[in-house]
Amino acid sequence: MSQFFTTKKSIILVGAVIGIIAALMQFMGNPPNMGVCVACFERDIAGALGLHRASVVQYLRPEIFGIVLGAMLAAFSAKEFSPRAGSAPMIRLLLGAFAMIGALVFLGCPWRTLLRLAGGDGNAIFGFLGLICGTLIGTYFIKQGFSLGRKQVASRAAGLAFPLVMFGLLVLAIVTPEFGNGVVFASEKGPGAMHAPLWLSLGAGLVIGALAQRSRFCTMGAIRDVFVAKDFHLISGVLSLLFFAFIANLMLGQFNPGFEGQPIAHTNSLWNFIGMTLAGCAFVMAGGCPGRQLIKAGEGDGDAATFVIGMVIGAAFAHNFMLASSPKGVTEFAPYAVILGFIFILGLAFSARAKINLD
């Protein structure tokens, strides 16, 4: 079975399963074209914990907890649970924060970019082009010497810390009604109020987490491999996700082609592109897309967990400081935050190059 997950058939199958599950989760109550979106769901979790005050995007999303726990269980079963950490934690946290800001300017992570395309949202074309551009920029910086350093072996307790936090939040999501109001926040309208049944959401997350862990599914890695190594293994899974989500949307009556009036999206093509360029660059420099970061955190990678926490903090900043877009468009302050993100990334790249020159 372990050899199967190294084949192209396996990555195509995993992409198909994720695409179909995402479409079904939308059909069962998740927001339109957002069956599974790591950035959006982490943003909802930040709101549920009171880290931001946008009342329409607050909900403890079981899918996120399931992805981490599913990856952990798969890693243990394959004897791949490997606690490690210690590589530039503050930089990873800031990369996560700026990646989230860029993603919320566009309104979606790489997975949702594909799901928006599969649902007929033409605006996602510019987001996907931004991801490609960001991947190429980030890869160039890495080739020029950017590195977050070597990881060190950590204790099993350190590796289990983040999955245990996810388990604790899952328990809170399950038992919250017994505590009454005020323990966590939950939207009464808007995207945060749209969700599939809790146990179905958890099951979907567990399946996605386990399959993605075994197959090493990663959207940013797929784009990077095509342009850098002419390797089409991972991109086969990404295209499979897109295709099968599209077919499932057609069958479920969820395919609505066009640019105007798309759900939880805006039509500012320039900032759709720029926002995802920032996000894509940050993802590559940090070592993977947000879904892959959740998977690695489930495997015991404390650095990936730091990046995820950075994304949650970035979501809080994005909404508290009016940086996140809405169907009305990009906010007044978002461009300044995106520019600041590019300055930060350029500073990292320049410092790495300067270090090489000094050496």
From TrEMBL:
Q: Where are the membrane-spanning stretches?
A: 12-29, 59-78, 90-113, 125-142, 154-176, 196-212, 232-250, 270-290, 302-321, 333-352
Coiled coil regions, renumbered to chain = none
Taxonomy, superkingdom: Bacteria
Q: What keywords tag this UniProt record?
A: Membrane, Transmembrane, Transmembrane helix
Q: Does the record bear Repeat in its keywords?
A: no
Q: Which InterPro entries did the record assign?
A: Seleno_YedE, Sulf_transp_TsuA/YedE
| Pfam families per the UniProt record, alphabetical | Sulf_transp (PF04143)
Return the NCBIfam families for the record.
seleno_YedE
Q: What is this protein called?
A: Membrane protein
In which organism is this protein found?
Answer: Paraferrimonas sedimenticola
